Amino acid sequence: MTAAPTSAFSAFALEPFPMLRPGDDLASAITDVLTRTSTALQTGDIVVVASKIVSFAEKRYVDLTNITPTAEALELSAQTGKPAPVVQLILDESVSHFVAGDRGPIIAQHRLGLQLTSAGVDRAGAEGAWLLPVDPDASARALRDALITYTGADVAVVIADSDGRADRRGATAISIGAAGVAPLRITEHGDKRQEETLTDMIAAAAGIILGQRGRGAPVAILRGIAYEHSDAGVATMLHHAPHS
After folding, report:
1. Domains of the chain, CATH where assigned
2. Chain-centre distance of CA 226, in angstroms?
């Protein structure tokens, strides 16, 4: 199906957003901010959330003192400068990897089928780290359903993760989970037909607002984007199927 055109859209952060504790109800936290800021979700809105707060809600914390690095992890640690327990987590979370450049980053094929810097492992101080959600598409569906229940607005949800690329410096934002919005769209012009990763473009647009470390705005609302409703999820557009 050819995508409907989007001529303009708006985007804004939900802030100030509270600091979450592991196990907190993310949908409830979002709803509380909506109420406190007199903001109403509208049908068709896309709620973009940073993967880290989903990991918070799902208690995906790992204590690095419990990780015993293998010889491979120690070798990669010496090459890249990353702490050996963190490198071991990267290896545990991935099915393959390579080092981009002389000292990194480590680009890993995650068990979920995603290709990510450091397999999405996010350090939490000197002794901890956060892993990605177990099933980001399922997490997006659960959050979408809860937000619809709480607000009455038929919204979509995209889970975004910051990620570096092997060929350049810096980080961008990509989608790792989605609900209510088809991950791919088809655009046509004349005899040209293009398949586009819509949820990645949504994540990147929200990433301008979400920012990176220390920004403190983990949720953004995008309004006015035309999209096909679907629960297919990001996993359906990946070349590699998830590994158990």
Report:
1. 10-60+133-237 (3.30.1330.100), 61-130 (3.90.1660.10)
2. 21
